[in-house]
Predict the structure.
Amino acid sequence: MKKNLEHSKLYQSEGVRLLYNNSLPGILITFVASSALAFTFIDEKNFNCKLAWWAVMTLILVSRVFDTRMWLKSSAENKTSKSWLMRFSCGCLLSAAMWSLYAVIFYPHFSIEELSTTNVILAAMAGGATSILSGNLLLASFYNIIILMPMSILLLMQPEQYKINLGGLGVCFTLIMIVSSARSSKYIKEAILLRYRNKNLVSRMEETIRVRTREVYEISNKDSLTGLYNRSAFLLAAQVVEQEFKNQKNAGFAIFFIDLDGFKNINDTLGHNVGDRVLVALSDRLKTFIDSENLICRWGGDEFILLVKDKSSDAISDLADKIVTSLSRPIRVDEQNVTLNATIGISVCPEHESSITRLIQLADIAMYSQKGKYPERVAFYNLGLERDLHRKIMLSEALKSALDRHEFRLVYQPIVDTRGQVVSFEALMRWRYQEQEISPVEFIPLMEQSGRIVQTGHWVLEEACKTLAQMNKRNAGICMCVNISLIQFYDKGFVNNVNRLIERYAIPGHLLHLEVTESIFQSDQMMINQKVNQLQQRGVKFSVDDFGTGYSSLSVIQNMNIDYIKIDRSFIQNIELKGLSIVQAMMNISRSLNFSVIAEGVETDKQRQLLEECGIPFLQGYYFSRPLERQNALVYLENALHPVVNGL
């Protein structure tokens, strides 16, 4: 019984939110429909009456708009009040009553056209209410009855058979709309309940962690290697501090989640024995930051947690910086120096949370968000970091089956020469998930981390080759540029896959251009060079994308025999300032090393002119065209003024 009452309150509060969130589109549609109906069939007999009806309807709609604005500006707690439901219902049902009044009052003067139009509008308004008012079944049902039944009954009372039929249809339609509203309301309730359960699931995580901690409690309170608190002992001591805060015996505290960057490499290259000695040395340094007020433990592996009984932001930041500096100093092991970095995530009680387990989780999230960034090694938790982490997890799960669900597609952006002729297209991957376009900047790294980039990359390459074959039937010589991840190069079957696609779609090898980023220069050069040479023997061209934004080596470019360099858009956007010197330098180098230059990110005519003056042969960017869907790219190519002879 108590559970049902709780669910009932939940449905009511969430239903109010849903009603008001959907109200403005419904009000706008009502205003447009009422204006059209009132002023389309007006004549001298009913001019004043219809004008008065329209004015009253407009007044009601304006008051509903003001009511919606008041709801939006109200506090989160106040938004779920039952009074808002009453106010919304009154405004909504008054609107429905006005529709019925129109049908009943003006019916004697209806022409066949106005009768038909009125019935259509009333049916449309009732149909729209099925979804817009789905947050409250009773309101949706009354709305449908008020708006449809008076007109239906009036028609049933007429002598003409077709009007009787229309009235009968109106009654049936009313019942159908009520049934549809019930189904929509049931679905909404299930969605609200699911959201409620997910919210409760998060709150139960703390209790679950606490139970698991008690189950695995160890007899010893010390970590056997470092002599610091182990996890279970630290949690017990930290819970005492938490309880002191709840009893107002301290003003708050901070949790530091400390992770050693690069420690795995020590174990892998120098051995676990050296790794253990490094941990002991770093633990000794951490002990120097401990006083009677602070707690520290080895959380696991190369992770440490520090509890500081000080919630001053400046003091916390200063301490974190000192810890990072201390842990980053070289360690002497077996006549050699070992240097690691540390990343620290910080959560503060009570600003972020008061539960120890939750604070640790939040500090972990902050650390994870900052890991690998330099020189900033310290991060305070904020809500955005947690949202980002949850989103990454959600997208990573969705990516597992995105290819099977056919959610990926390719778009194509033209590359032109200095005459404006299309010479190539770059194939760009797009992912539409749950009616949203997910940025490649967001999902490509997730695919690379999971290794799914290999399978998906092969699909991208095949789709691009298929499109290239179609394009060359229309305009021989067009090239296709396809982005390749470094992880794909490590795939043993990569070269064979490329060769099979070239043969399957009968593509001249020199028309396929593979784009890599500068990260390729930090990899196994012997393996990379071997695969690049194998594909270049087949005619395949290679481009370096986003050149100048990361690690780059002109000697490596020369050794790899790179065909094209794409100057990053950041330099093009800054071309009227310092970027021009970089572009000119790249052109000079390209002549010496025998590669061509493509400028990407061209957005203005001024940029185009400056690039042409520098002698840049190929241009790409929104100035010429945004990325196009496949069919649009084919049409774009079809409409090109001049045929292409040799492409890029």
Notes: DSSP finds 23 helices and 17 strands in the chain. Residues 231-381 form a domain with the Alpha-Beta Plaits fold (CATH 3.30.70.270).
